[in-house]
Write the structure tokens for this entry.
Amino acid sequence: MKRRTLSTTSFVALVALMGLAWMEGSARDAPVQPEKWAVIIGVSEYMNLDEDGQLPGAVPDARALRDVLVARWGFPEDHVLLLLDRDATREGIRSALAEWLPDRAGAEDEVVVYFAGHGSQIWVDDGETPDGLRQTIAPSDVLLDAPDYDIVDRELREWLEGLPTENVTVLLDSCHSGQLTTRDATPFSRSRALSRNMEDFPAPPTAGTRSLPSPEEARG
């Protein structure tokens, strides 16, 4: 009967291969640690608004949150997409939420979405909203006299529902976010409501008869 004798080198190589196979198996069996992703949006400079429509505090707020997520909550810097001013157009925000995030985030990952900027409302003829109004956020290319570039709450929801994870936290630092704002709690703050009077726009037949406040009343 023939016997095969392994040299010391062959034996060491065999042990190494066995160890590698064991490590690969253990890696497959180990629970996958969720990753952290964020899209942070801040708009201080609006392309189509005059000086009164600018928001000096929005970009610093966005940068501050990014720094906190990275330094305190362990978000990798390359997992945080920061969209500021001219990068935070309607298309830029849509691309970030509907393409960049879904292409990267996994089913168990944690996602944070933050928007600092103007909020507003637009008329809709969907027969669903009692007053005919839907809430919007205003990207940097928003128009004051037309709703073409507003991001409607329903659109935002659809983009977020397209994410592969349910672990999503959304922070809207704007007026009309849930129809509640505390931006005017002190005389030193500036309202983040777009100075748009909806009474100047034709309302659809499905709209209610609720009296709409003027921009000044909405801020007060």
